[in-house]
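Dear colleague,

Following up on Tuesday's group meeting, I ran the structure prediction for the four-component complex that the binding team flagged. I've pasted the input sequences exactly as they went in, so you can double-check that nothing got truncated or mislabelled along the way. The structure tokens for the whole assembly follow below. Feel free to forward this to whoever is handling the docking comparison.

Inputs:
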Amino acid sequence: MTLYFLGIAILLLTGIFSLCFSKAKYSLYLSFYGQLVNFLLISFSSLIFFKKAANNITYSLSSFLPELTFSFRVDMLSFLFILPVILISTLASFYAISYLPDTSKTKTSCFWFNLLTSSMLLVLLSSNALLFLFFWELMALSSFFLVSYDAQKKEIRMASWIYILFSHFGVFFIIGGFYLLYLNTNSFEFESFIGTDLSHSTSSIIFLLLLTGFGSKAGFIPFHIWLPKAHPVAPSHVSALMSGIMIKIGIYGILRSTTFCASAFTSTHIPLLILSIGVISAIIAIIFALLQNDIKKLLAYSSIENIGIILIGIGLGTFAISKKQNFSAILALSGALLHIFNHSIFKSLLFLSAGSLIKMTGEHNINKMGGLLKKNSFLGINFLIGSASISSIPLFNGFISEFMILFAAFYMFINSNDVLVISIALLTILTLIFVSSIVTICFVKTFATVFLGESKINNDKLKKIGATSNLPCTILSFICIFVGLWAIYIVHIPLAISFEILHGFIIDNSVVEKFSFFFQSLAFGTIIFIIFILILSMLILVRKFLLCAKDEETITVTWDCSYLAPSSRMQYTGSSLVSPFTEFCNRILGVKFKTPIFSSIYPKPTKFEMIIPDFMEKLILKEPGKIISFLSRFISRYELLPIQFHIFLMVLLLLILIVWSFCMI
Amino acid sequence: MIILIILIPILGGIFSFFTRKNNVRLLILSICSLLHLVLSILTFFYNPESCLNGMLILDKVGKLFLLLMSFLFFMSTIYAISYLSNTSFNEKTRDNDGFIFDDSPQNIFISMLLIFCGTMSLVCVSNHVGFLWISIEATTFASAPLVYFYHTRSSLEATWKYVMICSVGIGLSLIGNLFLMLAFKNSGTNELTFTSISHYALNANKMILFTAFIFFVIGYGTKVGLAPMHTWLPSAHAEAPSFISSLLSGALLNCAFLGILRIQSICFHAGISEKTGKIMIFLGTFSVLTAALSMFSQNDYKKMLAFSSVEHMGIAIIAAGLGQKAAITASILHIINHSLTKASLFLSSGNILSCYRTKNINDVHSLNKKLPISSLLWLGGIFAICGLPPSGLFVTELMIFKEIFVTRKFFVAILLSLGLVILFGSMIFKVIEMYFSHDEKNEEIIYREKFLKIVPSFLLLLFTFILGFTLPGKLMDYINQISNNFGL
Amino acid sequence: MNNWFILIFTIISIMNFLLLASSRISGCINILALQGGIISLISILNATNLWGILTFVFIFSIKALIFPLTLKHALRLTNTRREIEPIIGFSTSCIFGVLILVFSYWLSNKISYHFGDVLKLKLTFSIFTIFTGLFIIISRTKAITQVIGYIIFENGIYLLGNTFLIKENIIVELGIVLDLLVFVLISGIVIFRINKTFDHINASLLMKDDQKGVS
Amino acid sequence: MSKDLTLDITYHLLYFFSAILFSPLLPGLINRTKAIFGGRKGKPLLQLYYDIFKLLKKKCVYSKTVSWIFRLAPLIFISSLTIVLFIFSFGEYNNYFSFNGDIIFALALMALARFAIVLAALDTGSSFEGMGVSRELMFVPFSEILFLLIVAAGIKSSSSFTVSSAFTFNFPPHIALLLIIALFILLTVENYRLPTDDPNTHLELTMIHEVMVLDYSGPDFAFILYGASIKLWIFIFMISSIVLSFFPDFSLPIIRYLFTICIIFSVSIVIGIIESITARFRFDKVRRMLILASVFCIVVLFILIEKGDIV
């Protein structure tokens, strides 16, 4: 455990020292070395950690609150979240070396970057509610400064403002939930929270509060508004870190609060709520992602969709618990946990490659890019692997976690004849398949419009991107493939964690032998993958044999039914590929098209624009904004009135109080 | 010892009124403030005996507020020295907000400043109810000309508003005094000193005491800046020079808060603290919400700070009204943190004002380039005042929320958190606009930051961050003793 | 002795009505001086020692002589003749005066319920004077009339202190200190020639073009 | 190995290799029936075999805008479809090769095949392929949901969610009929038979599947044609295994195998008949047809749940 704090201390020190370098390059290198040392320390100490049980340490520092003891605890669940944190922040800081320009802003962003990583680690480690809140706010603060990196532009300032507003709004709900728990256990330690036996209604109220609080950080539907605004704006190594890990810390909070309010899950209301939130956010988010043309906005919406899938897993698990389906409960929850890890891997891969893509072309809109695979095949392959694993193509890691959740849903579907359970299981299966098919379409669209076909940007404008920015992407894509193929060994970890989370609920442990039933099908799955690769390589050889007999292939123009002047703009762009979908969803989303109006005979150049308003944002952000600004105008007009009116109000208040005091008593 | 603490500033004030040269006056000002700070620190080591037959006693809470006040006064004197020395006289530089920087009658200003410090230390020291009233009234006298430093039409109007509302408030608190006397008429005691009054409080007349409390809470509430009576605060702070407004919101509001705290302790001893607590919580939440809403559409950053002091005073009043021992400690801690951060914020807003010469937020651009150091202090101060972790206010907000939840007043918690979120949103939005926004027009750096002007706000902010990270054990149990013998 | 006091208190409350109704400021000042004189009479009535006489001399000189003279001087300086377009018209303020009287009677009933009826009548009139003073501050726009309202308010406080029959307590004499405050107000008017209380137009909110430069 | 196990493996492999051999025959059969209906003599039955052999001997022609994905895509298409075929060639014994969850693998592999072909089509960078892809992507989510519903109806009353238990369950006749109609609609969408896409139109604007593989030549085109025929065999095999539940089970497994082969051929003839009498639907009507089919399956599920006796 002490090695953890050594690592974090080194991280903070390098962050602070990186401020005082003259050239930003050195501070970037320094912050990367800090991250690397921290990564090595924590991974090394966690190897030892696996030997003995979860160990917790309480430091007796004089804290600023009597109840706040510096008590830390590492268990399997927090370790599952620590791993991606240290991994991705090291890779992101390595990526930042070649990505960020050499200005003073980079120095401050290095400091904030290290502070963000250490505060995230400390949030995962802390096991005292107030300490948790302290680091939670620190995390929000440091990520705010990272998002507002080049905040000269107005919309970046607006995005970072909305971001910190939502996270601060969530903190109050968390404070409410923790304090209600404190009322019943009058101690702020997480152990005492777990042990309490609250009545069903109070614990469900507490859980709802904590759900909304952590939801504002996790970013599912009702609270997702800041996500598609903040991520495209942040520098891409920061948005990789944020959407890869920061969102998962919100999910970590929700998982912790499930262990706190155990009795909330005796009835099916709360699990159904989680499930429905997951389903709604998955479907709506992925439809929005489909229509986006800005590559980072698209990735942000797809992280909301993946959070929806994770919530579906958790909801299904807790629903199975309330219906005593222990096997599918553990499996669904472990599927959700594995998806958390997988998502952090391939989402940061996609964000990093999108960042270097934007740096290469200087363009955010995918319709303006094209044919980049030939220019930079390394980047293309990484992006292809990332998008394949996010759309859960069998060989990659996205498929494994979806397979576990689907397996649990199928198992529930067969083994119970209670209509509710069957319909819920069927609903989850259908949503998962529907959503993963649309994700495939979305990422086919992005990959094709960006990397394949003719290139719409002439060559000299393309900037070279260094090898250092490709290395982290290749490492991440290697992890994706590794998890995809060696799934049998990797699946044990999330299963053990979900067993540990849910061991409070499960009475019989006859569940354990059922897992062999699951492992057998997984083994068959890997055999199928191996056969697939064998056949593929055999066919490649056959093809080479068939073609080598002739001399080389002839290269001509693609078949254009003899059109004389084909140009690269004749290709299908992203928005045209999904145009059938935009008409289909137009009624719900209200997509507005600004069609050009031709005023004169010889029409001047006009432009066609498609705006996809996020109706949720209007509902949640604009309406309260209007009310508050109306009220504030009303009240600030009060300040304009002459002095007499103020004195009149004083006297009025006096009279009211006197009358109240004499009548009441 | 107490007499010394009060007399030094007042004598210094009178003496500086008659000196001719300006830098001699500044010398007197700095000496008096240094001496005052040293004396108030000394009071902690060997507590002084009472004088004026029991009228002036320096008890624990008085010492704390006295030290806080004198520290703030010393910091603003450092700022004042560099501020007053470089404003050259009768050089009518009129900037676009109508400021005339010719403060010819300099001597009135400095003497009034010192007398203001004397009167405030009188408040901390006073033990008799009537004496407390006199000293609070004296602070209004002393601070009125300070607000009128710039001799512009709007500062005149702000002073008139300040004096008018506070005098009505003081009149009401005098009625409160009379009712207090009526309540204790036949309760066996004649002199109403705080130390002795708590023994006889039980047999005082409950009804009359409650009306007395109402008058007091309204009267002293105007000085604290509670909701309906807070309107003098924004105009006074916008017009007064920055180090005066830092003193106003840092020290003056504390003294009035001290008055309300003493009256609340009397009511507690009389056993009606439940009803009085309800009034205080109602007023506190009302002022938090009005401050949050009226700051939303405000685009003058000094007025924004004034509204945030109204809001933080509201929070402290709520904590004081909860009636728990821990709540009193939380409110005192909140007051300390708030005055430190608010003073540093006002001083750095003074730097911004002297560089940009405008109070309008929309005209302040690319702060990070023009004033690198003081803009950092400004940003850190704003994040501290909004209650984000490294600052002490985050700690005290957690404490107060804990108390609210312990006393099961959930509706208050909801309203308070709503007010805090609105406030946080509007404040951060305005500060981001000032800090990050960039306009190409006036790009040249014309204003070089003076060292003396940065040091005080840096020190004050440093103290809040220290209180934010680790609360020294000695300070905690010192404040716990205060809330014990307050009897709440 | 007691009914002498009651006579004085009734005269004062009649004067309050006059002050509420009169629109000419110089008339108000004369009534004010008269009221000051009568109030100083009270202090001489229950003065038992040198300290009481001293207070009588002090109060009489301030309330009956200095304030009226300075107010008249201020009147000439700011050349205001009468209170034009007050916020609440003069006849309606008389009606309000009646309401205030009823309220102060109800309040003194509630208060004196604990201390027997000896206080009731004097209490009603002192509370009545206090609230008339506040009402005048609220309902008039001229700065000088507001100061007059404030002086009435302060006379009311002094009467209140007197009704509680607390002898030789320094708080009762604090009313005199209040005069110091009034003195500051009046000097403010005289020095800076404040005529109308400012219809405070917050420049930032209602930014009219011409006003931008001056504000 | 017990006698039963060897029988199961041999018949599994038998079905698999017969599929490998006879699958190109099916399009020939369909075209021949359409020709007979049109009063034409029509292409020879083994036309597809000749085309494939001819193409294998030819040289490839690639456009310059094409990357390595274009060359790899047909191979991924073929190999994933052979694996799906292996999963779907089940006898009626307790199948050694089928395991729980192989439905998910089959669906995912089909999605992989489609993923590869679509990427290759967009790689050529011509607007015809783009048009075909955008139409193809239109049907993908709804056809996957339909496939899942059919499988769910199948496995609802069985103890393990494997493909074989989904389709070899002896359904009562009315359920079997509904499932066959739904499967038939799914077949036309997945394999671009007539109601959704006319395979032998020559107007690029109206094609979906043909236009996606427009730019292929030589051995790649052969692989794609062969893969398409395997995919056709898989869907027809599904329909035939449901049709088998109408007939009583047979004494000898060899008779059952021969019987399935005849059913497969008769089903392809039925497809030919339908193709020759219907015209192509408008695109959003195809979507409505898919949703109609999934409604059929949901009705089947209600019947199964309400009946409740099948545990």
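The mean pLDDT of chain D is 83.

Cheers,
M.
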